[in-house]
Structures are given as structure tokens and as C-alpha cells.
Design goal:
Distance between the termini of chain A: 32 Å
Oligomer: homodimer
Helix content of chain A: 25-40%
Largest sheet of chain A: 7 strands, mixed
Largest interface: A-B, 75 and 75 residues
Radius of gyration of chain A: 22 Å
Mean pLDDT of chain A: 92
Shape of chain A: globular
Number of strands of chain A: 15
Amino acid sequence: MNIAVAQSGGPTCAINASLLGVFSHAVKYDEIDLVYGSVNGIEGLIYDNLVNLFDIITDDEEIELIRQTPSTLLGSCRYKLPAYDKKPEIYEAILRTLRKYDIGAFFYIGGNDSMDTVMKLDRHFKENGIDIKVIGIPKTIDNDLPETDHTPGFGSAAKYVATSIQEITRDSSVYSIASVTIVEIMGRDTGWLTASSAILHANGEISPHLIYLPEKPFSIKQFIEDIREAQKKHYAVIVAVSEGISLSEEDIGEAFQSGNVDNFGHKYLSGVGKALEKIVAKELKCKVRSIELNVMQRCSSHLSSKRDITEAERIAGAAVKVALDGHSGKMMIFKRVANRPYNVKIEFVDVEKVANRVKYFPNEWINEAGNGVTKEAIEYCLPLIQGEQNFHMLNGIPKQYVLKCALPRDVGSHEP
Amino acid sequence: MNIAVAQSGGPTCAINASLLGVFSHAVKYDEIDLVYGSVNGIEGLIYDNLVNLFDIITDDEEIELIRQTPSTLLGSCRYKLPAYDKKPEIYEAILRTLRKYDIGAFFYIGGNDSMDTVMKLDRHFKENGIDIKVIGIPKTIDNDLPETDHTPGFGSAAKYVATSIQEITRDSSVYSIASVTIVEIMGRDTGWLTASSAILHANGEISPHLIYLPEKPFSIKQFIEDIREAQKKHYAVIVAVSEGISLSEEDIGEAFQSGNVDNFGHKYLSGVGKALEKIVAKELKCKVRSIELNVMQRCSSHLSSKRDITEAERIAGAAVKVALDGHSGKMMIFKRVANRPYNVKIEFVDVEKVANRVKYFPNEWINEAGNGVTKEAIEYCLPLIQGEQNFHMLNGIPKQYVLKCALPRDVGSHEP
């Protein structure tokens, strides 16, 4: 039989390592002949757009380059599979492709939405007696998948966030005048990545002085008070704020009027860093700057965590065995055994326990004032950012791997 | 005699290496006893705020940490020295401090404004028969100082810009829909750093597909046309744009009305990336994202160019000898001998030739359409981004050096 693998959702530094994990473990099993890559996530199965990974990955150097290349080698999608009774033709198209290529197991690397796809496909196959295994492999910088201790991609993003905020702290501290620097970090619903900025404290940094997560209601008044308090001790105050902080009821009306709340009436500020910059400048009349770490926090492979990359490969490799053992409708998970020395086991759970659910940052790891995190949070993050990859460089910049074979859709912008 | 050194202007990855260059060369000369650091640039001389660098730099590991720490160890300033007849008391305060610490030579690491300070101080000393040498050591990520082939700090910034845009290109190319990504790069007046994004082409990347510099008038209409043209060939169009692009006459009126031109009526767009994002979204109705590389492009020491750091140290070290040889009112420069193999000589010029002048990106290195740069530009940049530093890491992030001694002004935010 053959197998297929696809990458879905937002890019990370580790998602190509997971692709390699499936590939390099699959070749070890006699039961598996070919490994197909589905282009643009599940869309590749729908539109019959597969590539034979043996055509793409031909030597060891390519494997090393893929490991150090961020984002998704095979492209991605934001496609949410509809229920069968709404769109039966989609399921039929997927099945047609899987049958055409004699695929006995499908591995989907992704986050919450992708696990929903795994769940729906698996149910459909089981209900109809179709013997195709579907396994989810976790991936998201948000670290918000339930059941697993952490998700591949998170460690590298956390390493980038902590390193960058350390550098931003040096940059912001040069002048002898009071200043506030607000760093906006990804995380619509959960504060894991923003909280990871506190790793710096393990290195003796006091910065970031204030940390705000979506898990606590955000009061603008309290925020200004917090900064005033921090300014008594520090010329250069550094604030880490999650893009998804949710405004307290009292602030919503006002924020609406000032145009700082997004059009859909969500409780979060759109462009939270810039919005807070304006508010602080008005209230405190000091030098204020906002910095959005933007997509760099999820794609800066040059600073990826070696442990993250290694684990991403391992957990994906383990998924192959799980499918061959006859399981389906599962997501692979990490179980942390110990922090020091760090030790994790790889297991799996029913994907129902993960799909469409969110793992929030624990309330007990947020300080009482709601503007910082506890030592437990730092201890949790630290092992995940350890180690650096040995990079192949070309002309002074990291060498990357871009698909050379002609894909029906343009997923790169690289010369042949 | 003793000497003093100060750091000025915006932070870079190489300015602490230049501080080390002065320090480690000074200790080799019997004529020099102590090396003082002036805190917050020239302000330290004005307010008698010096530190003895022998108290700060005590062992080899500290030297290595300082070399890998971005921004200014001694703090910085944006102070422009007034003319003597306007503020004689400032000159007297500076002289008082220099005399108090028996300082025979002052080294000022900085950009255009700092060279103005070097020039004014030197003239004042010469006119009044005061035997204190003043030497400028170039530093700016903008690379816009005349006379020198390039400036320390530029190479590291260029390496960050090229590496990040490569990663952003991967990130932006994952979905099978048309998108435009606009990356805003520092450079108010000159396009050197934005042009350095073209280094990627040496690695086979087509991205960035379009590059806009302040040296050419920027037409919004032409910009939209350029993107339309690029979209015929690429799903994911990547644009590198300098923060300082200047609008053509026809665009200024319109940009004013939409609030996209800054309040001072300057011809540049304030928040150029965001402004262009809105314009493209409206005109082309596709997915558009703007990314500001922000201060990370000048402080990301974790990705500094080893050659840049080495050269910053060398040119500063050479400055010590120039002062001891009796020169004053000079700025150190690089003269490029060859590209391949790369070879530079270190010389010096009268600071008058540099102060308050700007070296623009050469017109002949901009393509005819005004939306890209030539191979000569790439050849120029490539040698400057070569090599990586071996980093001391602590807890998975680069170890940094922060002043431990009590400074009269808080220049850091680090625990003792």
C-alpha cells in the first residue's frame, strides 16, 4: 500500500520536519511502497493534486535542507471540511483520489481545524467500512491543542520570541529618557506564545516587565496604571502583549468609538500593539513604540529550536507505526515525564478529544495582578527552546529547499 | 594619558564590537593608561558621566559576550552639538570632563550627526590650542556615510533583512491564492538596506519581486501596475520597500487627503508598509499583508555578520593608532580593494568630508523601471554579510552582556 501526508494551517518552523518524519519512517516499513504528498493540505486530495515524495526527496542533503526550511514544503490550506450530508461530493472526491493512488493511510499535520478534518474523514470511512487510516500530527505555534503537553512549532516560535525581546530590550534601553515598548505577539485565543517571553527571566532579565494574555480580561485603565508603576523602576519599560487580549466590558464601548475594535465587534483590539501605543502616548506622554513580531515569529527557521525540530520529526515518525498497527482517528501527543532532565513520551488519543477544542494557558500560571506569569510557566517553556540546528549556509544566508518539480499550483517563487 | 570612547545614534549589532576595538587596541599601547566610556554618547562628557572600562571589561568571556550583544553597552544619545557661539558652556563642560580624567583622545562611534560633533569639537580644540584628538568611527545600518565603502552595522542588518525576507517568502507562498506581501525596511533617506534584500537573488530566489528605494520618486499608480505585472507570474508577490520612499508630485495631494502623509508635510508616507497595504487591498482586491522589520533589523545580533563584527572591531582599533600618530578631526573609512576575494583597506579622511553629508544608493544600480536593483548592488552587498558568530547560549537564548556596575543613569533593565 501507499500512504499520503499533507500540511495544513499556518506555517511553522517544524512542519517540514514532521513531513520528513512521516517520509523517513515510512521507508523503513515493507508494508509501505510509496509516500505521496498532498499539495495545499486536504485540497490536494480533493483536486487530485499529489506528488510522489520519492521524486522530491532524493538525497540526504535535501533532507537536511528541508529540515531547516520553514513553512510548508507542500503548501497549505485553511479549508474546513464540511459535514458529509452538506457536501457528499467532497468526500467522494477525496476517496476517489485515495483509491486512485492506493493510499491506505493519510497523515494530516495541522492544528485544531485540521484535527476536525481528521475526525470527520475517519468517521466517514469507519461508517462506510472503508479501510483507510487517518492520523493527525499536531502542529501549531499557538500550542493550544488539548491532550498533548505541547505542539511542534511552539518551541521554535518561543525561542524566537524570547531572543527577539531580549534584543529589543537592549535596543530600547539606550537613551536616557523614559520609554515604553509594546511587543505584539501571536495568539488569538491563547497566551502560550506571549507567555514564553518570560523565558528571559531565567537569564536574569527583568524584561518583559509586563505580560498580558487573552486568558484574562484586559482593562486599559489597569494597563496604564501597571505601566506607571513599572516606570518608577525602569526607564525603558517593555511590554509583551498577545494579539488576542480581550477587552473588559467597560472598555469595549470606548474602544469602538475610537475605531480600535475590529469591524466584527469582537472584543479584541485589531492591531493591538498600535492601538495600545496610541493610548499610552496620549495618557503618559512619553516615547512609545509598538513592534509586531508578525510572521517572523513562526517562520524564523534560522533560530529554530533543535529540540522542537527533532521532536516534530519523531512524533510524525511515530504516527506511521500507529497507522500500521491499525489505529485511525487518532492524534499523536507528547506526555511530559519530567522537566529536569527533560523527558517526553509519545502516545496518541482519540482525535475527538482534540478537534475544535482549545487548551488555554493555565490560570494558575498567571500572576495575581494579571500582568505576568509564574515560574512554572518558565519551567514549562524552557526545555522546548533548547538547542540550535547546524545550518547549511549559501552566500551568507541559510540555504532553503524549495520544490523543484512542477506542481500544478505555484506554491513557491523559486528559480528552477 | 587616558582616552575616552562613546557610542551614539541608533543601535546596531556592531557598535559594541567597535567599543571593544578601541578598548583592546588601547591596552596594547604604553602611551595609554585608562580607557573611559562616556555614558549616553557625548552627554557623558557634558554631564561628567564616565565609567572606567577596565572596571567593566574584566575577562575574556565578557569580551565575547559584549561582541555578541546588540545595541550600545554605554547607552546612546541623539544629541547634536550646538555651535560654540550658541552654547559655549557645553564646550566648557566637555573640556572640564576631558581635563578632569586626563583624556588626550576621544573616539566617537556614530553616524552623520556624530561626525558633526567630531568636526565641531576638533575645530574648537584646534582653534584654542587644546591638544585633544577627536576621531570618528563610522557606524550606521543605513550605510549612508560618504567616503567609506560601507559602514559597520550595515552588513549585519543586511544579513537579517535578506534572511528574514527569504523566510517571509516561504511563509507567504503556502496558500493557493494570490497574495501580496509588503516588507517595510529602514532607511529614511537612502535605500542601501532595502536594496540588500536583493542578495536573495544570488541564492536563486526571485523574491523580492519588486524593490523600491527613496532615491527614485515613487508613483502609486506605477506601483500598482508593477504588482499587476508581477502577479501574472507569481501567486505570492513579495515587495521590499524603504520606509523613506518619496511620493511623486501627483501623489502627494491625494495622499494628504487620505491621511497617509505625515503631519509635517514630508513627501514620505508615514507607516509606508501599512499605507501601501491599504492601497493595494483597495485597488487589487487580493490578500495583502504588510510587515515592518522594525528594530529587529538593527538589533538581531543572533544573526549578525561575522565579517561585519570583525571589521567593526578592526576599524575602531585602527582609530587608536591614528590618534596616537597625532591626527584629529578624522573619520576612519574602508576602501574596498576587491570583491572576490573580498579585500578592504582601512584609511581615514577629514571628517568635514563626511559630517552632515549623505551617500545615496547609486542611481546606476537601480534598474530602469525603478523597481529593482542591478547585479552590481548584489555583488557589493554579498561580501558584507558573510560568516556567523559562534554564540554563547544560556537557557536556549543568546547570552548577552549588560552593564553590572552602577551607572548614574539606568541604561539597562537587567538584574545585578
